Structure formats: C-alpha cells, structure tokens
Fold this protein.
Amino acid sequence: MANMVDRSGIAETVRHAHPIILLGALYATFTSLVNDPPTLLLQLLPVTIGIQIIHASTCLGSSRAAAAAAPGNKKKAKSTVKGKSEDVGANFLTAFLSLFLALLIGTPAIFIVIVLLGAPITADLSHTALCAAHLSVLAGLPLVYSYHVQGSKWKDIVSLNLPMDEVYGGALGACLGAWLGAIPIPLDWDRDWQRWPVTIVVGIYAGYAVGRLGGLALVGKVARFN
Amino acid sequence: MADIDDIFAHVPRRTAAKWSKNGPGDLEDLAKATAAAKEEAEDRLFAAQKSKALMDQKIREFKISHSLVVLFFLWIAYTQLVGIFLFTRGFLLTRKVLEEKSDCKVSPLGEGVYLGEPGTGCWHPKTFDKAVIVIIDALRYDFTVPQVDANGVPSTEHYHNNFKTAYEIAINNPENAFLVPFIADPPTTTLQRLKGLTTGTLPTFIDAGSNFAGTNIDEDNLIDQLNRTGKKIAFMGDDTWTALFPGYFDIEHPYESLNVWDLHTVDEGVLTHMFPLLHPDNSSSWDIMIGHFLGVDHAGHRYGPDHPAMAAKQKQMDVFVQDLIKAVDDNTLVVIMGDHGMDPKGDHGGESQLELEAALWMYSKKGVFGRLPGFETPPKNAEGRSVAQIDLVPTLALLLGLPIPYNNLGGPIPEAFIGPNGDKWDNLAHVARLTSSQIENYRKSYTGARDDDQNIETKTTKLWREAEEKLKVDPVQTTQEAWRTTYESFLTHQKETLHVCKDLWARFDLTSMLLGIITLVSSVISILIFGRGISGDLKELTGWLAGRCFAGTAAGGLAGYAFHFSGMSEQGELKLALFGSAAGGLLAFFASTTAIYRRLQHIFPTSIFSFMALLFTVLQGVMFAANSFTIWEDRILTFFLTTFGAVAFCYSFKQEDPAMRTLGASQSIIFMILTRIASFSRLCREEQMPYCESTYYASATSSVSSPFSLILLYFIALAFPPIVKSYYTGTKSYEGPAQLYIGFALQFGLLFNALYWTLDSADNGEWIDIPTASLKKAKHTIAQVVLALAFVAGNVFFAWAQPCLNIQIEGGAEDEKTTGKPSSPATTAAAATPAPSRSMIILGYANLHGSRSFLLPISWYLGLALLQKPLGGASMAALLWQILALLEIIDSNGLSDSPIGPVILAMLGSSYFFSTGHQATLSSIQWESVFIPTDAIRQPWSGLLFAGNEWGPQILATIAVPTLALWKQPAKEAGLMGKVVRVCATYVAYHATIATCTVLWAAHLRRHLMLYRVFSPRFMLGALVLLISDVVMVLVGVMGVRWNFLSVGEVFGLVN
C-alpha cells in the first residue's frame, strides 16, 4: 500500500489534518451529542462523509488508480503530476461510489453486529443505525475506496490477513474503539455521556484516529494468529 | 484397521506360506508337516492369546492412568474446597450465643425494685392474660393500608385493597388497635424471622442456608419464657415452629411449609384448629395461641403478587381477622403480623425495601393502645413511622408479664404502653428503663464472654448511665414532659446498642479469610501451570503429580494438626489441619514442577484466541470489583460471547479449505444469533431496574410462565432433535446409539417435557376440569419418567454403548450393508478378508470419539431442561445447540489446543445461568423446582433437583468439556487423553479464577454498602459453581471419557 499513497504537499497536509479535524468536529459538538444523540449524529454524518471523501480522494490511492499509474510511472515521472488534475474528478467519483457501497452494505451489517452484541432491539433504533453509519463511513469508506470489491482482498481484510497500512489500521482501530466504548455504559455513575451510543461513537472516532497512526507505524506488517 | 490385520489376518497367510514351501512329500515330510501344523496351531493360539494379553494390558494401563487423572482432579477439588471453606468461615459472620436466661424473680433494675411473680407480671404489671399471635407469612405493609393514586382512584392491582379490617379498626377505634410498618432484619427468610421475632436479637448471615432444616433455638426466647412461667401454648401452622421449638407446645398442629405450590393446606389447618380453641369452653386449655398462615406467601411464590389467587387469599385472611376479633374475650391480646414482605415478583430472602416491610397490627377489646403525637393514623408507608421486628419481643414480654428474654435488643413499642390518651410517658419510661437495663446486662456478659477490654466505659454504657441519672434527680415529682425526655434517653441508648451490635457482629475473622485466599490463589496458579504451562502429553505426568500431591496433602494435614498443639495459633485444629493439607499438597505440586522444569512453558497468550481467552477471564475477574458490572453480568457475558462469535467468523476466512471455511463461518453466525436470542430470556434483578424488562415469567409481578413459552417447548420438541442430528450426519455418525439417544430418547423426552409443563400450567391456571390430585399424579409420573430416562437410563446406557459407527461394504454389483456395529474385531476381520475385492467403509469414523462422547450431554440436557421453567427449557436447547456450534468452530479452525474452547464453554454456562431466570441474588432462587417430580422433600434428592435447576446450564457445559478435545479428532491419535486432561484443567482454571476473584473482592469490599446485596451473593455463587463444576467434571465428565475410550478401544484398539 505504501507505494499507492500520494506523497504530494496537499496530500500530506490533508493526511495530518484529517484526524485532527475529525476529532475536533466531535469535540466541538460533544455537548449536543450528549443531549440529543440521534439529531447530532445525523447532522455530523454529512460532515464526516465530506471529510472522509476529501481525505480519500486526495491522500489515498485507489487500487485501480495505482494499477493505471504503475506502468505510467516507469515511462515518465511528469505524467503523474499532469495526471493529477485529471484524476481528481475520477477520484471523487470513486470516493462517492465507495460511500454508496459503505452505506448500503456496511451500515446494515454493522447494525446487525451491534444488535447482536447487545444493543436494544426495540428501542433507540435510530441511535444504533446512525452509530453504524458513522462506523461504516469512517472504517468502510476508505477500505472500499482502496480495495474496491475484490473478493480475495476482502477475505484478507475480514480475516486480519492484510498487510497493515493507515486505511486498514484506521478501520481496525475504529472497530476496537467501538468495542471498548461499550465498557463504561453499565457503570452507575449516572452521567449523561453514558447515554447510548455516545461512548461508542467517541470510541469509534478515537479508535480511528489512533488506529491510523498505528497503521502508519506498523506499515506492511501482517497480524500473526498463531 | 492395521492392527486387526496384523493380529488375525496374518496368521492363516503365514501358515499357507509354510505349507506351500514344504509341500506334501514323503511320510517324514508329512509328519513334519503335521508337526508343523500343530506347532502352527499352537503358534496361532499363542498369538491370539498374546494379542489378547497385550490388549488386556493396554486396557489395564489405561484404567490405571485414567484413575490417576481422576485422583488428580479430586485433589484439585479438595484444595479448592478447603480454600472456600476457610474463607467462608472467616467471612460469613457469626455471633456468639449466650446461654443465660432472664429470671422472673430477678429484675434487671436490681433487688427490691419490683418483686413480681408470674401471676401479676414478672418485671412489670401485666396487661393481658392471654394472647393470640398470628403470623400471615409475607404480609407486606402495603397490602394492609388502602392504596389510592393521586386522584383518589383505588389501585386495581390484585394485591391491594383486599385486607381492610385491620386498617378500619385502627382508624375508627384507635384505643383498640394500631397498625404500623414492621421492619424485618435481613435475611428475609421465615426461619431467620422467627428467630428474630422470638429472641429479639439479630440474625447472622450464615443461618440463611439452613432454611431447609430448622434447628432448635438455644438462646433465651419468648416461647421458652412462656414455658418457664407455666403458660400453655397452642400452635398451628408452618412446621418451622416445631423445628425451632420441639416439645414446647402443649397443643400443636404443624403443617409442611415448603411446598409452595400448595396454597391452602396450611391455612385450612390453622382455621380448623384455631376457632374451636377460641370457644369459651376451651379457654382453659391454652394461654397463648400461635397461628402461622402461609397462603399469602405461597401465592406470591407461585403466581406473584398480581394474580387473582393473591386477592382471594388476602380476602380470606380479612374474613379471618373479622372472625377472630369476634371470638376473643376482653383479656386477650391479638397480634397479627407479617414476618417479611415480598419483592415485586412475590419472592423474598434479600434486603430490598419491599421484602423488609411487613405489617404489624395489635388489637384488644380493652382500650389500652395509644398513639405517639403526630402519628395518629396508620402511616402510608415505612417512611413515616415504623417499628423494628425485634421490638415485638420486649413488648409482648411486658404486656404478658414475662421477663424480657436475656439477649433481646429491641425496645418496647410505644403505642402499647403510652395509654389511650397518649400521655402515660411515665409508664413508657419505666418499660424503656427495664429494657435498657436488660440490654446493658446482656452487653456486659457478651463483652465478658468475648474477653474484650471491659474497663473502658463504652458509649452505650455512658448513654444508659445518663438516662439513669435523669431518673435520680427527682423520682417522684417528675412531669410528663420530663418522663418523655427520660424515655427518649433510654430510646437513644437502645438504638445505639443495636447499632454497636450490628457493627460487632459484622466482625470478620481475617486470619481465616487470609488462609482461604492464600489457598485459593495458589490453587489457581497450580491449575494454570498444570493446564497451560506444561508442554507435551499430560496424561502420564498427571499420575506422577497426583501421587506427590496426595502425599503432600497428607503430610501437610498432619503438620497442621500438630501445629495446633504448639499453641502458636488461635485457630482451631480443624482449620489448621485443613490449611496444612491444602498447603502441603500445593507445595508438593510446585516442588514437583521444578523437577520437570524442561517441560514448563510460559502461559502468556501467543495467538489472538488465547489472548481472547485470557482477556475475557481477566476482564470478568476484574469487573466483580464494581457493583454495576456485577449487576449487569448477564449483558456483559452476551457481549463477550458475541465478540468471540464475530472473531471466529472473521478467522474462518483464513481457512484454505472452502468446506471448513463455510462450516466455521456458518457456525459462528449461528453462535452469535443464539447468544443474542438467549439473552432475551431473563429475569431482571432489582438493581437493573428500570433499564431491564423481565421476560422469564408472564409479567413482572408474576411467577407463572407465559403460554408462549409452552408453545415454544412443543416447537423445540419437534425441531430440536433434527438439529442435533444434523451435527451427527455431517460425519455420518448418526448410527448405533446416536439413533437411540437423539431419535428416540431426546424426541420423546422433549415431548414429555412439553406435556409436563402443559399440565403444570393447566394446574396453575385451572384450565381444565380435572381433579387436582389426579392432575398432580399424572404430572409427577411424567416428570419421573423423563428424569429416569435422562439420568438413569442415559448414564447406564452410556457406559455400555458402542461407538456411533456402521460398516458399509460396497461390492461390485450389490451394496451389502451389515446392520449394527461389529461386536468384536474378529467379525470385522472375517467380513473383510473373504472378499478383498469389496471395499469397506466405516461410517462415522471421522468423529469416532466426539459423536459418542456427546451422547452424555444430550441425555443430561433432557433431564436438566425439565427442571427449568418452560422458557428455561427452551434456553437449555439453545445452550446445547450453541455447544455443538462451538465444537464445530473449534474443530474447523483447528483450535482444539487453544484455551479458548473451555473458556467460552464455561462462559456459555454462566451466561445461560441468567437465561434460565436466575440471578446472583437469594430471592431469584427457584425453590419450587424441588417439587417437579414429587410432592415431598426427600434428601438428598430434593437437594440434587434444586442444584439441577439452579446450576443446570453450568452442569451441562461441564459435562460437554471433554468433548471439546475429542470432537472430530483422529481416532488413533496418540495423546488424546492428555488433550482431554488439558481441556478439563483449563475449564476448572477458568471457574477457579472467577471464584477466586469474587472471593478477593468480597474480602476487599467487606465494608461496602452493597456487600450483602451484590458482592456476597456473587461470592457464594462463584464458590458454589466452582465446587459443582469440580464435582461434575470428575464424576461425570472424566468418568464418561473412561467409558468412551474403552468402548472405542474395544473396536479399534487403545492408543495411549
């Protein structure tokens, strides 16, 4: 993956600003998130989507773009610079397609998993659904953008067999963060922020930011099972 | 099959070869040939004998090494038992019982103050000659006062506004009666309450378990005092009384008290025997009459408060009160009270407000009762005014002219002494002084008995002395106002003493607790080393270790016993010997491990699954430190189990083989969905409210199952056997005994199971017009048949059953199928040799051990499911299914060596404990399950039935543990038994860790507000689950493996 990542100036800026903007957006809206989770989650979702699309289309290489660029690289270095402006449109299109897939497939799948893990099944459905949507936009969108729908890649993604990179690290971090976010819910502290699904959403965002850093640090490593 | 060929098939071939080599020649040759043939025959016989001898020896070796494994697990269980015993002895509080009795002639105020005698009143002039004391079990205070909402609309609950007479009289004729909330000291079980109500002292926690066998009271008490002053007592009702006071009653009519499904027998008995005695002609035959009704309590246990049966019971009791007050004369005191309340579901035992709030109503035709200023009418609830239950003891004693029992800590109830106008403060101050002085006497002898420092004037003595000083100032001309302050000083003294005593009896024996903790922690470490820290085959090592540990245990026990005589420790010899034995065994274990240090390996996780196993265990152990996590344990287990399912699902995609990948992924999905579905069946504990909705019973205020769960049982009877079967058909193992267990026993057993609960519901709801007796008989017969099928036939047949195998021989033209399984190796060989062109297929070989081994959990499931309420029976089916899914997940992902299998299995057991309507609270215990197959209590059967209901899921999981190591494993793999040992040890290690953590937290948080509500019950649950899984593991699990290996070995030869 490392070779697919764009190292140009704008991309670097976006890459470093991205987690800060995401966490900043969550931090700025935290009070309203606690007061009315579904409304705020719905308002925050387009913002997150926007950030994710900009990040994906500027920083991440899609595997198709990489495949197209790979032979071009050898010929002349200039063409990548020239191709950039043409690619931006295509990248945005890919990003929107990824968003569409992530929301269409990712959200229901994550919703089901959250319910299986113990989320209420009759109450607070919008809370859970929006929480699932946020996770799929954060974790799923970049993955779809990078790996499209290649069966073998997704098999590797699911079975933790993929070499680590910032996309994969972020996705794993977001899932782990969501899991850890459930821990404070049962405590009898009677705090407003224990309301469903505030801690999960915070876990997702924090986990995503940490996971991206971890992915960068451990780039290329494959999780070892046995 | 190679072995069989070696042993049998080769013999004829070798003979044939010899024959052809020599050839039939001259006579000499012929003779030689004959001799050779003879020799050959002998050879052959010898070979057969040799092989048999070899086989026998292998079997013998297996049996010996297996017995040593059993011994080793018994040693582990013993060590854990000792640890828990030592901790419990120090942790569960005890109170010293003093033998002294109060004497009628000796007033606590000293000589010459008031010299009474039984005729006029011992320490104080008596008010009544006779008394009728009636306990309506579980008469909660809100049952007795009108319940209206803010708009004045009467409550429509079945348990409100039925029991009216007491309240009406207390309002209309205040001088004749008063009604107050009557607060019990926990635990709220009838036995404990009766002790409190007669002795006036506080119960200690350890007594809570003895409800099934009431023991007589040694302490001074009201009944004893009545006997000593020559009063005649008539008793009728709950037989707990006769167990507590054997031989004390002149007339007695006890009735079986624990059959909570019977609402009427006890009550009818009390009514039948009480009213004839109230007739003036019989008045000389008794002085004190005690009646104890159980109908209200049983209606609560059986149906819950919000049920028409409860309303009917309360109305019946109301009529009884009306009849009673008509029948008594002027000199008789009437006391009607509840001994405890009931929780929203109708159960009791804990310390929630509803369980503690009983009602007390005192009545007499003499207008002697008054009111404290400000409390003229009965309070709405206990927040206004309330009376402690122990206060009844001095009150009754003084009203009836008895001495106050020596160890009483209660104070006189002011309403009974203040006079109809509410102004006799002097009388009240006098009785309060008597009570306080007696309490002070008791305190002195109690501290004396404890050898504590007596010279320091305690706070209570100071309070008492101050109160006495107030009297001395001007004993004659004191105003009522001054008397009132005197009374209040004595009251302060009583309250303070009670407070001090509560503290004093909450004193823990820290040494004993520490010894227990050391034993338990070392035991956890040793089993972890044994189960996970030793590489290679564990079987041989186990025998070696078992011998050393037993020697260490014996030596340590003797050393501990001897240490007692050195006088260096104040602990009793039993405790020292037990601790010595446990420590000796553990030291021997640790010393032995140094001898095999080459085989030691670190136990830190190396893979994601062993990491998960460790993480789940540690997280659960840590979470018992927080009451909120302990309260929400059920949801947390669901969360962990689903997490495992999700990770297993992801991991399945690593498998190269598509069949394995599909199997692993699909079973993981089934596992997750079943976990979530089972989590819908639950009974919330009080602390989970309002974030929890109980589904186990028809409604939150009922203990009847919903009709939906009955339909579910029939559905399971139809659909579940095919599901179990599908796990056998995959490896073609649905052969031989499997058909019998699944196709016959499970099928019919489940139908009977559904039928039983249908009849039970019919009985409860009175759906059909069949006499209760015959309905009961039918119901009990069905239950007995199912239990016999599951526990007797299922186990006995398992010992003899052959492996789930079939031999299929495929020839050229026709497919010949021999039915049944080969009875001996010879027949197999015979079938194989004559027609070498045909190929032989052994059906079920792929899961040879696992398919047979799992028959045991199947038959136990049947019996354990019957013992659960209908929804619990359905949960048990889900549990068995989930165990099967787990077996497939473990096998398809190659995790049979990982600790994750046993840990998840143990967590499944714990999780389904909640899905079968249990909680780690005393009030959630389903006592009524004892009466499923019979009407009477017969030990030890009743105890076993109770355990089967309470810990059914854990027991089922424990029995399935060995199968984890056997499922789909190669039949002839060496070290299979060692694998079983490892899996079993890991399973025990999990439960030991959980139990030890609950012990540690209970010890650490022993002054926590929630100790008795949360931590102490969880500690008891953890300890009991550990001991039960130890026992079931050895007796059923490991023994089952023995039959399994022998049975498989009989066909294929034993592999060690």
